[in-house]
User: Fold Glyoxalase-like domain protein from Botrimarina colliarenosi.
Amino acid sequence: MPSLTPFHVAVPVHDIDAARVFYGGVLGCPEGRSTAQWIDFDLFGHQFVVHLDPSRDPAKADAANNAVDGHGVPIPHYGVVLEMADWEALRDRLASHHVAWVIEPYTRFKGEPGEQSTMFLRDPSGTAIEFKAFRDIAGQLFAK
Assistant:
């Protein structure tokens, strides 16, 4: 697999302080530049930005999902592929913060190409997030 460069993604949040607590405190993402309207976070080496949108209603967050391995995977969602040890450490960190899981941590596609550990949750503004890990990222990420 070629060397990857960091991605940049920006999402709306209804409350900038709640986003700071969640992304900085719960997920443990170091904070970069910020203003009263937005915050840059280092999300496992990627530039993740939250932008204040006071009109965003977390109760009306996207509710669509697709069935994957017997679970309703929220769409849209974003996420990061982690090394297994990092995924396990994050799983434990999130559990210690008593997050409300959309899909609790588990391993899907067991014994099949693309076997992966995954977990889904939502931020305080309702944005769906997936963290996944493979035992062999290069060999399993795009396995058919």
User: Anything to note?
Assistant: Helices lie at 16-26, 84-96, 137-140. Residues 8-54+65-140 form a domain with the 2,3-Dihydroxybiphenyl 1,2-Dioxygenase; domain 1 fold (CATH 3.10.180.10). The longest strand covers residues 101-108. The two ends are 16 Å apart (CA to CA).
